[in-house]
Design brief:
Blueprint: E1 8-10, E2 19-20, E3 23-24, E4 26-29, E5 32-38, H1 52-69, E6 77-84, H2 87-102, E7 108-113, E8 126-133
Parallel strand pairs: 6-7
Antiparallel strand pairs: 1-4, 2-3, 4-5, 5-8, 6-8
Length: about 140
Amino acid sequence: MASATAKKTLIPDNEGKTLRGGNCHGVKAGGLIFLSAIRGQSPGGRTLPQETEAQARQLFENIKETLSWAGAGMQDVVKVAVYMIDLQHDRPVFNKVWQEYFGDEPPARFAVQVSDLGNPGDGSKFLADVVAVAP
């Protein structure tokens, strides 16, 4: 069992930065990795695909890349919380891409529809919070 004094480490990106806009990319603590507010934007947040499948695929690539900065991979993911703008229409496409990344041993997941994802008007369809086991 992790103690209340477990060391917390901020996860740096591929440029060695641990913060983006005052928030961290992720945190490693108590044998777990926590990633939050992962979106389907290109690296650096410069572009956002408008097509649903491309945005879902980029979201998973961003998760994969951020986990790699912590020395982990998609196989280490144990739970994903997904927030979607249009659950009814986008979930089937999201599920298709999910299957490609997680296969027959997916992590636990829940998905919920929300009215916006914190950046109104940017076109984001998905946002994910991820918990992984630190290898």
